Amino acid sequence: MRWFDALSAPGWHDWFAIGLTGIGFWIAMVQLKKTRSASEAAAIELRKARTKLNSDQLSAVVTQMQMIVADIDFAIEQNDREVAHRALLRFSYVANESIALLGNLTANHDELESRLEGAATKALDTKSSIVGKKSVDVARTAKSVGNEIAGLCVEISGLVARDRYQIGATQDV
Hints:
The chain is an all-alpha fold. The chain contains four helices and no strands.
């Protein structure tokens, strides 16, 4: 039994099979190109969705920060160490959440992240100086960190507003 016969010429069915194979490869290449285009479009849409989600999450963080600033202002006004204690502790959590969210944005916010980290540390230090003491001058102790938190809150609010404007300006979102 011979597997290959060099003397026999290919028949019409051999040429037809080669043609069908060529058409099959061409169809496969067209489908691969369509798949690549679709995956690139999906990646772009995913980036847009992530940006929108980060903006929405930062918006929620701003609301939490605004409530913290109000609580710190109340604690300073009323010299209430319990309210100050809870607000400063909450701020440290919210600041760390903000740092993570800012890290996910496309723009570089290293300086803001660094200031948030410093303010969170300062808030925890201030909280530690308030805890366990009966007569603490909350106004003197918490005023500077409260002002720093208020400034960061305003800055992040502006960042959220700017991102919303940029997201709203694109027609694809």
